[in-house]
Amino acid sequence: MTAATIAPPTAPPATGKPRRAGWAAKLVPYWLVLPGWLWLAVFFIVPTVIMLSVSTMTGDIEAGFKQTFHWSTYTDAWSTYSVQFIRSLEYGAIATLLCILIGYPVAYWIAFRGGAHKSSLLFLLLLPFFVSFVIRTQSWNFMLSDNGMVLSRLRGWGVVSSHFHILQSSTAVVGGLTYNFLPFMVLPIYVALERVDPALLEASADLYASKFTALRKVVFPLSLPGVFAGVLLTFVPVAADYVNSSILGGPKTTMIGNIIQTQYFTNLNYPVAAALSFILMAILLVGVFLYARLLGTDDVLDAAAA
Amino acid sequence: MPESDPSLPPDLLRGLTSARLSRRSALQLGGLSALSAVLAGCGIAGAQHSSLGLSAARAEITKFWAAHKKTGTLDFANWPLYIDVDAKDKNVHPTLDAFTKQTGIKVKYSEPIQDSGSYFSKVQPQLASGHGTGFDLMVITNGLYLDKFIALDYLVPLDQSAMSTFYAHASDLAKNPSYDRGNVYTMPWQSGITGIGYDPKKVGKKITSWNDLLVPALKGKVGMFADTEDLPSSALCAVGVNPETSTPRDWHKAAAWLKKQQPLVRKYYEQDYIDALSKGDLWASMAWSGDIFQANASGATLEFVVPSEGAPIWTDNMCIPAHAAHPRDAMTYMDWVYQPKIAAALAEYITYITPVSDAHAVIAADAKAATGTDRTGLEQIASSPLVFPSPSDFSRLHRFRVLTKAEEKVWNGIFEPIFQS
Predict the structure, then answer these.
(1) Does the predicted interface ipTM exceed a cut of 0.85?
(2) Are the beta carbons of A258 and B268 separated by less than 8 Å?
(3) pTM of the full structure
(4) Which residue in B118, B281, B412 is closest to A265 by CB distance?
(5) With the CA atoms of B333, B338, B344 and B350 taken in that order, what torsion angle do they form, in degrees rounded to the nearest 10?
(6) What is the DSSP string of A86-124?
């Protein structure tokens, strides 16, 4: 946009050559964002439109799928799988909350007490993530198995009954989700806390604020943008996850991601799978939009300033 | 148990039941149909030899096989733990090495198939767009997905003139099966029974019936399968119905049985049940016969039972995907494994139901020649009804229900919500 103001505001010359130069300069920013738009168009908009069109088709894999604008696929899909949709959102909310409760103190400690070791501590936090997601999740199956190192000991001490098991339960699934997505919460909170000037803490102490009041009234509001970003980065992928449920879950822990996978890969029912994906996307988009409006970054900054 | 109909040549029967065979498969066989169309157009084609006729289709198949000679390479797609391995090196497969030595064909062996359904959806787009899967030979279980492979003409019809070993040694179970009359597209690799595997020390009593999986004492310790073939068929057996001839009313009855059982079920498993059963997370589970045999060979003390109400039997089949680069090499291998010696070597490791009953004598002889634990192991295999079932065992084993498209929707609608709840 600055290019436009730099261009000399001369009257249109007869040749039109300088004018073309001005146009070219005006177009520079658009050329610069073009790769981004192309990327978005090819890898997001085109597939999304295709999936939208698939979702209203009818047919089967042998006869082929034909466009019939069969919108009731959506209502049928919702009425059949609303349980799994709601369960996914519940698991997403609980896991996100647990991530905040566990992640905030970790980020706080690294940001304010990490000292010279901050980067090593962050590295330690990320170290497990150099191992594949599936293998890390599967390893819980070894540790928490009924005769594994944890439960056999607890049973030996008489803490749990012989039929008690952790795996294949909703606790295991939510636990796995929390474990797998924790760094996505810690990192943005850490970045926000890192920017808080320690002098503010001294100033609040000078104004007779206790340590807890300083945390509550100064540090926490300033870190809210980090929490906001962390919630987005955690909740959306957690609600759509299907790995944790299939590895750690049992009956009645099926999430909507598992259903979509079965519809695509087992039933080859592409319209229903596409419709389910769109419903999930719509729910998450509306949720995120409302969340941003209610607790948007601007408001958060206002809260911090007040 | 294949019912055979001696009055009709099997491949004719197959042709009669699938009218599109000539056209579609001809297209798949490398554009030869264009040639036949030209020939039909300018020749003096007699009425008894139209291009849509069965003999035309047969001629195309003969031409296809005449055009494909040995290349010296074979790309083989199989399931995990489904071939013999060397005791020292798990990547060495003695029977494959013997095959290379005898025929000069090098085998590139891989194990990309976890279950027929997801493998079908993986290769379906490649086959539909006319590209090969990269494999010349694959192993697919009879049922919904093998039917789809056949209906969509994604399989190359076999060269019936190159199956002499098969016809000499294949057991009745392997010849002319109900899902592929006349072995037009498939030759069995192994068959297996879906029954109950359990740990007798933990359960504390003998399990003999599907209804033993309804005992409250097993709460949280029972595993069932997450699929639309084994799980429904087993439940149908449990309520006393033969799955092959079951009706939608029976399906609801079976679903009610499964729902009653659901509070006791720990999880609806895929391939991972055997791990949970060996570790003790499960005390009893639906199981595939050979898995229990193999788990015991590596130290577990599990038992496998064919429930008194009956159980499903399935067959994994070797077949050649369309557009395979080396079909002749695949054909050679498929026939080669039907030698009793080779079938015995495979059965001794895989411990499912071998398609070659003559392998029994070979294993018994091997057992006599062996010593120590090898000997007892081989004797167990030779005497096991799970590897060599008797005719009376077969009377309790049932094939899967063949479903029409409309029935498949109803069936899935009834049974899927049970394991995806």
Answers:
(1) no
(2) no
(3) 0.83
(4) B118
(5) 60
(6) HHHHHHHHHHHHHHHHHHHHHHHHHHHH-GGGHHHHHHH
